[in-house]
Design brief:
The protein is an alpha/beta fold. The protein has helices at about 1-35, 40-50, 220-225, 255-260, 275-280, 285-300, 320-330, 355-360, 440-455, 470-475, 475-490, 500-510; strands at about 70-75, 80-85, 90-95, 100-105, 135, 140-145, 205-215, 240-245, 265-270, 310-315, 335, 340, 385, 410, 410-415, 465-470, 495-500, 540-545, 555. Bound molecules: 2-acetamido-2-deoxy-beta-D-glucopyranose. GO terms for molecular function: chitin binding; hydrolase activity.
Length: about 575
């Protein structure tokens, strides 16, 4: 509760001191802007705003506390350009690269005034300037439309690779067309919030997906055994399930094999889990191939998973690899990605009601950018990527896929990190539960769970994702206890199911009302698994690979030991093929 009091304090600060202080600076600008006869100042705003996208925030200064940014607003009366300001709440700073407020420690670019600017192609013109099928580079050169955003500069000024976002790629996926996009293979809706099959919300099961990221081994299997103890059952009588996005290094394949035997879903979190976020954002097709398809080869072999059930991918650090990642996935028969985050709100700033807007008008503010859309914070359902994604790509280092891909996106709705929803303020959402850094006690965690459950349950019942690193849940005994308490409380209802990602897709492909869900066949597989693991004494293979010089790593498996520790160039561990 102490945190609340702190937040109340910053609220006051923001509203009384903060905004009025910043308004002084902006009022100055605004007056200059309108200053009679003083054309110079006008010019400087025009200059400042020349060629600047209207939705891009930038800093006027790098001194100060990194909370204030402005953007160029051309809308006003007589289409004069003005600066519209935004200030992040206390404790947060504005990240220029990602264009959002975030905790101060996460923001590394306070010394930069603006996003680095690149030469842009000339895509929007009243009259086409190139022959049909071609588009104009920044320098007026015309090249084939297909050459834009293919990861290879084709324009002399290289501008063809500089406008490739979900909104700007000339070869981007089209907007959702519900007449073309039909289940079971395609699902989309304009704002992402529509329920599949148009089922009434009160007939939709509230699905909850518990997922874990990282290696599976002796450090965490006790936790998994406690949560998924075989006694806890969904309303259809089948055991509750989780999804494990696993990385290879240090994983124990006997444990992986047993989780799979018990009906949990194994999915890929990569082979190396290299701790260089840029490697993932900038990874080539072959990098993604080696990491995800190569990683899957290792898991299938050493956990003896032969049923083709490893179909999901989550990018390390949630650093999505753009179109290349998704092209690789389609080629390799992956079915879904679970790394794209949907923001809670656009710019996470508290809206102060009428008082704020009265003040803004008094102080010559032009524009407020803090009302979050969608206003009710309705969560988003998973969607397929045949059509354009229905929300902004604001996390994920902005590298969401712009093209059409036959892949499901099991979107991660950010959690509302407030542990008390009656306290009306906006903080940035968090995608992994452990990134909700304000959650310090079991009580706070318990309230966070219930508040976010209600947010989903009382709106469109989009699946609620609870994404963990095992180490966080184990860091305090009360976290684990509260999670188990929450699960049992939910299972006492008859409308909540703890399911895997694949089970969510199965339901969406065949939307079934709660009243007939007990007989939903797709959810009956491995319904109530009993019995013992395949092997009680796995081979503890001590292995090396010339790819990791000086390291000996134990690979536990019920299968035979390979010759080498499987790694990126040698995923079977058989040795390097002569090349
Ligand atoms: C591996 O799986 C196959 C097919 O499920 C099974 O026949 C075989 O006995 C398993 N091998 C081991 C060593 O577990």
């Amino acid at each position: 509760m102490a945190t609340h009091r702190n937040y109340s304090k910053w609220l006051l600060l923001v509203l009384l001191l903060g905004l009025s202080a910043s308004s002084l600076g902006l009022r100055q600008k605004r007056q200059d802007d309108e200053g009679e006869g003083d054309g110079n100042e006008d010019q400087s705003i025009d200059e400042l705003c020349k060629d600047r996208p209207p939705d891009e925030y930038f800093r006027l200064t790098t001194s100060g506390d990194c909370r204030d940014v402005v953007r160029c607003d051309k809308a006003g009366e007589n289409l004069k350009t003005r600066l519209a300001g935004v200030r992040c709440p206390n404790g947060l700073a504005f990240d220029i690269e990602r264009q959002t407020c975030d905790w101060k420690t996460n923001v590394k670019n306070c010394k930069e005034l603006e996003k680095p600017r690149k030469v842009l192609p000339i895509l929007k013109t009243d009259e086409p300037i190139c022959p049909e099928g071609k588009l104009s580079c920044g320098n007026g050169e015309c090249i084939e439309k297909e050459l834009f955003c293919n990861d290879k500069p084709d324009c002399k000024d290289e501008s063809d690779e500089n406008a490739c976002s979900v909104e700007t790629d000339p070869n981007r996926a089209p907007d959702c067309d519900p007449t073309q996009c039909v289940l079971p293979d395609c699902f989309c809706s304009a704002d992402g919030t529509r329920i599949p099959g148009n089922i009434e919300p009160n007939q939709v099961p509230q699905m909850i997906t518990i997922t874990f990221n990282g290696a599976i081994n002796v450090d965490n299997t006790d936790l998994y055994d406690e949560i998924f103890n075989g006694q806890r059952q969904n309303p259809n009588g089948c055991q509750i399930r989780g999804t494990f996005f696993m990385s290879h290094k240090y994983s124990n394949y006997a444990s992986v094999q047993d989780l799979h035997r018990r009906g949990h879903e194994i999915a890929m979190f990569s082979l190396t889990h290299k701790d260089e976020p840029k490697y993932w954002t900038g990874g080539s097709y072959d990098d993604w191939l080696a990491e995800m398809a190569g990683g899957r080869l290792i898991v299938e072999r050493f956990a003896n998973i032969t049923d083709g059930s490893i179909i999901g991918v989550r990018a390390p650090y949630l650093r999505v690899g753009g179109n290349k990642q998704f092209e690789m996935m389609a080629d390799q028969y992956f079915v879904y990605d679970a790394s794209i985050t949907a923001p809670l709100g656009r710019v996470p700033i508290r809206v102060g009601g009428n008082k704020q807007f009265e003040m803004m008008a008094d102080q010559y503010f032009v524009y407020d950018a803090s009302i979050t859309a969608p206003l009710g914070r309705v969560p988003i359902w998973p969607y397929t990527l045949y059509f354009r994604m229905p929300h902004k790509c604001n996390g994920n280092a902005q590298n969401c896929p712009s093209r059409s891909h036959p892949i499901w996106e099991m979107v991660m709705n950010e959690l509302d990190r407030r542990d008390d929803p009656t306290f009306d303020e906006s903080l940035p959402g968090c995608h992994m539960v452990d990134s909700c850094s304000n959650i310090q006690t079991g009580d706070q965690f318990a309230r966070l769970l219930r508040h976010n459950f209600n947010r989903h349950f009382s709106t469109n019942r989009a699946p609620l994702g609870l994404h963990f690193h095992a180490s966080w849940l184990k860091s305090k005994k009360e976290f684990k206890e509260e999670l188990i308490k929450f699960i049992e409380e939910m299972l006492d209802r008859n409308d909540v199911y703890f399911v895997t990602m694949l089970q969510v897709i199965q339901w969406m492909q065949n939307p079934t009302e709660l009243t007939s869900l007990r007989d939903f066949q797709e959810w009956k597989e491995k319904c109530d698994v009993k019995g013992q693991p395949y092997c009680s004494l796995p081979n503890p293979c001590p292995l090396t690979t010339r790819e990791l010089p000086g390291q000996t790593i134990r690979l536990f498996t019920c299968m035979e030991c390979p010759n080498n520790y499987p790694w990126i160039l040698d995923p079977t561990g058989d040795g390097f093929s002569a090349k």
